[in-house]
Protein 1
Amino acid sequence: MPGRLLRLFQPAPAQPASYKSEDEMRSKFRYWRIRQLYSTFIGYAIFYFVRKNIPLALPLMEKDLGLAKADLGKILTLHDIVYGISKFLNGFLGDRCNARYFMALGLFLSAAANVAFGMNSALGVLIVFWVLNGWFQGMGFPPCARILSHWFSPRERGTFWGLWNTSHQFGLAIILILAGYLGEWYGWRWIFYVPAAIAAAVALLLVERLRDTPASLGLPPVEAFHGEVPAQAEATRPQSTENQSLHEFWRFLVRSVFSNPFIWGACLSNFFIYVVRYGFVNWAPSYLQDRQVSLAGAGWMMAGFELAGLVGALMAGWLSDRLFGGRRSPVCFAYMLAATACIVLFWKLPDGHPWAYAVVLLAVGFLIYGPQFLVAVFTADLATRKAAATAIGMTGFFGYLSGVLSGWGLGHLVDQHGWNGAFQVLIACSLLAALPWVFMWKISAEHAPKEDGSAS
């Protein structure tokens, strides 16, 4: 039985060619690309249902359980650190596992952790279950990176990854609204029970809808779909890392990921981007409640933050593809400078202006999510599809390591110094997030190593 379960997670084996003509191959490719895109979109959106439901629960937990903001920040920080480690380690596994079952299992286990969290009240127990949830959440992105890297080519990643990347904005926007009402009507525990039920159902949907690589369906690599190489010539070429020995794969990772200074630069920027991003996502509902905004109203405002981020990410992908020829750095730099100005404005807004809060939150969301998305695209460009999940997991680890600041750090600052101290840290981090892109201004996918191991 255990052996049979483990075989589920092995990469789906390559199948004989399932097409008889170029037209049939293209038709099948179009169908499966759409199906893979919407399935991973829905699945990843629901991962956020059972991860970012907690910000709306925090003000209620503070009152009901008598916890300080620093205590609540510990829950957030430990979760984010474990999530970052999980995203990195599962990125390594994600490059060599069957994405279909890997993603579904992670979502189901995350749903179970949410139920357990909602059933408990002791701080130590809450930390344990939310940390476990962080590990299971790390199983969400790597299979998506594997699927997207195999089904969409580098020249279209800015657009299609941008479209897919909106999944977490949709997921966050919906859960923030839903959680606001669940908390007001039924209490904080239902903010975890209802999303968990939805996630368990979607996990089963992923098993039915998702598939692994094109080769597992008897299709050639995506380059053949675009006419960049002959389909028949490519049909027998290895498409991914499972065809390599572990030693060969590790050598490729060291050369293309761990020794790449530009990926390290993206990691550094991502750390500060995530301090700002989750500083707002985690604490803006509490800040708005302190400014006399209702919990449901805060949920709607944060949903606007996420949906504006959706537009900002799509715009950033389009600008980097069309205006800058695949260079992501100029867009990241400009977005973060503008975000800094908007954070200052949000901080200085006077009390009693909820519409002004909402408008400036829209601007901050629009500007933060562009660079957050482009970090993943930039990293995938440089790592190639052979190591995309590992490389993005590495940048993700640095992003979620920022939870030390965006979780416990900001909570402790607010307890000790009020909201002014928190905003000063957010402004500094926004500026620091912009800086690495100055030194990577001209870097693009052209600087990636070739997948046979040679430099381009």
Protein 2
Amino acid sequence: MIIEELKQIFSTFLAEVNLFLSKNFNEGLPIAEEIMTLILAGITLFLLLICLSGWFWQRSRSQKKKTLDKLSGREKEKRLEQLKKERDKELELRIKEEEKLRAEKESVQLVKAEQLEKGLQEQIVSMEEEHRSQQVLERDLKKTAETVESAEDADSFLVRLRKGVDKTRTQLLNNLSDAVLGKKEISEELLDDLEEVLIGSDIGPETTQRILEAITEKVERKELTNPQVLQTEIQREIQHIMSKTYSVPGTADRKPLILLFVGVNGVGKTTTIGKIAAQYRQQGKKVLMGAGDTFRAAAIEQLVEWSKRADCDITQKDAGSDPSAVMYETVKKGLDEDYDVVICDTAGRLHTKKNLMEELKKMVRVIRKLIPDAPHEVLLVLDATTGQNAIFQTREFMEAADLTGLIITKLDGSSKGGVVIGIVNEFDVPVRYIGVGEQVEDLRPFDAQQFTESLFA
């Protein structure tokens, strides 16, 4: 009975499916019973495969879960330890990257700090130089006005010169006396001692060698045997070195006479310019100054004060202006307004600063656009207290400008006056002036014989 009912249900279901498939896939024609059986078998197989796949997936997932659950405590610890190591390694890499970035930032900050410190140091040095220059100016402005040089003044200057080189003379003569003391003959040992004495007096190695060679020749010819006359021989050789003569340009054949002053900071350049301007004014010359040191406002102010004191005119611009423009305007005014002497100041510059030395060359070119053979004098101001460094400065400035003369200041405050001898010997550039004090009359034209005599007087 039940089997019959199932057959009936299956037949009815098969008829419905046949009707559905024939309408949708067979243009309304009934499908053969054998084909329908195959179709139903295929559908049944497909559904069976889907069920089996779902069951297999669910079973695999369950097995994995069971496997994880079955892991021993030690295996779990190993797994956790491995994960921890991986996290620690990643953290360490991040820390290293952060430290590297921090180090780079600190390096950049350090460079900026060093640059800032360098700038501050340069400002401090500049302020100290301005302060020293101002002190010198204040002392100079307290002095009385200069009078025209007389024979009495010349004698007075000789006294001041001897007093000014007293430290140099004392050191030189005392050391010479010690070297020859108790010596009965001129030996190699004595000549070595003399070499130390001369070099110690800042005469310089080249000039010392020249003096010793002359003495050695006389010793070899038996013309010189007594150690006690060595001082006289050294004086004679120094006089020979200092006997160079040079022509000095004047206002008679050049009008205006263009003087260009150069030198490093702190040598007394601006003060020297003021003193020389005052001396020309005492001679009745019409003098014009050019404030070419536009890097320091204090330098311009100092030169303005000197122009008032010396009763001469001045061309100036604001601090920071182009110094070559100041040179051009100064020389042009000197030509147009019939000045006798034009004195041009320049910025104090280190002889090792190539860019500033190039600027000096530019100023010379600008002056020569107006007067082809100018400047007629390029005067380098040197500080005697710097000793052998004055010779190094002379070499460097000779490369940047055609030096025609040297001015050596502060001989009164130094035991290194022997450097004057070395400079005269090594360079074919005359010493034009020497300074042995702060007053205007303490800066005088250089007399080689007078200077040598004052060293041994």
Protein 3
Amino acid sequence: MATKTPKNPQKKHDGRRKNLIDNKNLKSPRTGIRKWVYRFFVAIIWFLILLVPVTIYYAHDLPDISEITQPKGGSTVMVMDRSGGLLASYGDVYGDWLEFDDIPAVLVQAVIATEDRRFFDHGGFDIRGFMRAMIKNITTGRMVEGGSTISQQLAKNLFLSADKTLKRKIQELLFSAWLEMNFSKEEILTYYFNRVYFGSGAYGIDAAARIFFGHNARELSLIEAAMLAGVLKGPALYSPLRDLERSYRRMGDVLDNMVEAGFIQKSVAEKTKAENVQIVDKQTGGDERYFSDWIVERAASLIGRVNEPVIIYTTLMPDIQDKANKALQRIMDQEALTHKASQAALVSLDMDGGVRAMVGGTDYTVSQYNRAAQAQRQPGSAFKLFIYLAAFERGLSPDDVMRDSPVILKGWQPKNYSGEYLGQVTLREAFVRSLNTVAVKLAERINRKNVIEMARRLGLTTPIVAE
């Protein structure tokens, strides 16, 4: 039995589709702007749905936020040497609690202009400030500006650790939102100024003013307020007790920020930059304080803030420390003028990496800036360790042979310290003699990126480029 095939089945389907669309009881498909508006609202709804469980997950183990209104007790830290002797002791310093009306206006303006210019306009998280900081950091290729608001900084300093994790960041946002909902802007600033850390054991602006300038915070001048605001970016770097010249430069940046924010005139800023700040002359101890300061700061990043006494046992050896101090002073007396050097630093390590002695400068009472731990210098031949280790990890052995001869890479021609070339040498001999040409050729052979990866694995954090 033969069957009939429609002459044009596609035309039949098109006609049916037209009838369906023309039916008044059916809606036509969303097109154009209607489609995008629909998708936007669907995305918002799903975002809100997902936000609830995420918030619950990260909020279930938040610390007790009622502590913000409670006075904080200090803690004592004792740093011991290898034999158990006391190297140095530290105690938190808290000054008078200042109400908002007692805080100098110039300090409030300096901090807002530098740390959070839209503080009075946002609700705890400043998306504009965050995007501005992110763009600036990307365009400059380095971290030059943070995106955290004052509320976020207060939440982090009071309740959270310094860990750079997603959990800590989300909890920081939750805390800052809680602060904004429960306190006025003036109250948040009051807690911030009375709790923020300024270095040298000083918590709060009154303690910082007394330690740095020798008077209470109510009497802060414009230049002192700008200097305190500048310290907040990094107390270890910008404290006037650590490095006065660096602190002055940072203070100039703060004054420029105040001009941009409209708080002061440019002429006032320039006049203030020319003034001198009277810094308290504190005899802070011997040169072992370079080491103990470094240890305390590293310990704080590991254990966070504590309210009970802490004893830190270290690997420092007092007799080696004394010899290191004398050796550094002897070298400075003999060679400082020849090399036009004004400072020097020294670190002595055990085979396991323990620090036996550390001298961060010629005189701790003059400058507390630790050139041994904080200054960045070219590693020189010490970096060859990572090259050889990466090479051995990729199958080469100390008995493999390479040629010590001239080499040119894109116009760069490294040479050996002796100016001579030895020809065929084993990697063992090249390492012992610290031959530069062999190290360069070896890095090229195994790929520089593998060398950088090895350096990162062993703890180097400073920027390293492959080119």
Protein 4
Amino acid sequence: MKSNLKSKKPSLSLCMIVKNEEEYLQECLESVEDVVDEIILVDTGSTDRTVEIAKQFDAEVYHIPWHDDFAAARNESIKHASGDWILQLDADERLDPESKKELRHWLENNSKMCISVLIDSPKEENNKGHISRAHRLFRNLPGIQYSGRIHEQISPSVSKLKGEEGFTNIKVMHLGYNKSEVEMQAKSERNFLLLKRQLAEEPNNAYYHFTLAQNLILQKEYKQALTSLNTALKLGGLPKDIRCSIYNNLTEVHTKLGKYEEAVQFAAKAISLSRNQTTSYLLLYEIYGYLDNPLRQIDCLESVLDITGKQKQSYNEVSLEAYVDETAIYINLGNRYLKTKKLEKAHNYFQKALEKDENNFLALTGKANSFLETGDFQKAQELFERVHQQAPDDFGILEKLGWLAIKLQNFHKGIEIYEKLLTFHPENFNILKRLAALYSKTGNLPKSKEHLLRLKSI
């Protein structure tokens, strides 16, 4: 990439550290190539096409050995930057296209020393994820540098320079939680070792005890995580957003340990620190599921929906904010209302989900079940037919369609469905009995007798 550092507009340098990132790097660089003025890439030992890809974007590539120190590598990257501002990204991150205009606006219209952006980490398999804040945009000034072997930060150096921080809604998409289980485990183990080394150097650093706890939670070492979280609180000195996240982590850990009463208490502490965050309510929803309390689950999800409209505010109040796809929230609310026999509300929430995704399998199934409960068998059948098209071999859906065919006195349709069910379970007593009755109703006595004889042989 050709430098544009003589422009009157503030110039921007992208600074990265990489190793074997050929799978992710190109899309990362494509996301910012029309925003940044130069690309500085520090490679710590790639053996794949990472460097080749970087040079396709005219990146300046520097090579250093890896010394188990992220801050040292980051500082090497910013040492070579010539821009007025520095943007830091990892290879598995992309600048959200809708944030480009806001990014340029902040570069040209603010007096802050560093800028906090939103890191959106979705988990593709379950429509969940979390959003955190990080200082990824800062002025290229003497004295601004990273510190920390792991979970490196520039904020301590900015504080020493008495610089101000700006909060933005610039969004960076992080794909790191969608890597393979092997990759995630290797990353977790690497980070654990670095955190232990960092704590050996700074045993009274509450922040590193907090980050160690998060690593231990990912490794499902909940008792050890509990110790680290309590140590972080005891050492103190942490800002409100980190304390709120610690209480949410304590909620999660106690839930995993089956200590639900304590978990509820810690969630309440997190909510008292920040009422405009959804993480605590989502954790409580899980707890009340274990306690089979659908009414309290409804309260939790209704709170999540209420907060969602104000969520940008909450990103300043908690260091890590969980989220769930709104369609999934509607479906879960529909199911909880269905369980408590509040059928009109159940129906309405399933409908809201279908307005967002008209072919959503779970929403169609839920709405069909709500019609079953109200006795509207015709509408239930229509919806289950749509579900059946998506999952033609789903035994449960076929059973309901068979039952509905009988209720609607469509006996030939019922026979067709139950014969298919019989292919799944040839010796199923109830299916054979139902087929015998259906054939009798349609006047096909030989077939009815055939199934009765099969019943006797079971």
